[in-house]
Write a structure and sequence with these properties.
By secondary structure, this protein is an alpha+beta fold. The protein is 18% helix and 42% strand. It has a single domain, classed as HesB-like domain (Hypothetical Protein Aq_1857, Chain: A). It has 2 helices and 9 strands, in the order E-H-E-E-E-E-H-E-E-E-E. The strands form 2 sheets. The protein has a 6-stranded mixed β-sheet with strand order 4-5-2-3-9-8. A 3-stranded mixed β-sheet has the order 1-6-7. The protein is globular.
Length: 109
């Protein structure tokens, strides 16, 4: 288990809802890829299971898993699910991000 990542109860509830609809395990994989308007972008997928070396955080029975390379860029982050007039999305509050963008899905270090 990782104390370096947090999945909020709102995000856990949304992951559980999506996973139930797709009859998949309630495991959200957060990864980081090059690209986006600020240099890196977040990618979210449902996972079948955690992989060897993954950091794992659990909230309300829902797991958040992050691979070791991505963890270097998102350590200490909080993953939330936010609904607003602009839509609904998972958001990463990343203390390491020095720059971000309006869409909230990319960041710079």
């Amino acid at each position: 288990m990782s104390d370096n990542l947090t999945l909020t109860p709102a995000a856990a509830k949304r992951v559980r809802w999506i996973a139930d609809k797709q009859t998949r395990p309630a495991i959200l994989r957060l990864s980081v890829e090059g690209g986006g308007c600020s240099g890196f972008q977040y990618k979210f997928d449902l996972a079948e299971d955690a992989q060897a070396g993954d950091a794992v955080s659990e909230t309300d029975g829902v797991r958040l898993v992050v691979d070791p390379l991505s963890l270097d860029l998102v350590e200490g982050s909080v993953v939330d699910f936010v609904e607003s007039l602009g839509g609904a999305a998972f958001r990463v509050e990343n203390p390491q991000a020095a720059a971000g963008c309006g869409c909230g899905s990319s960041f710079g270090i």
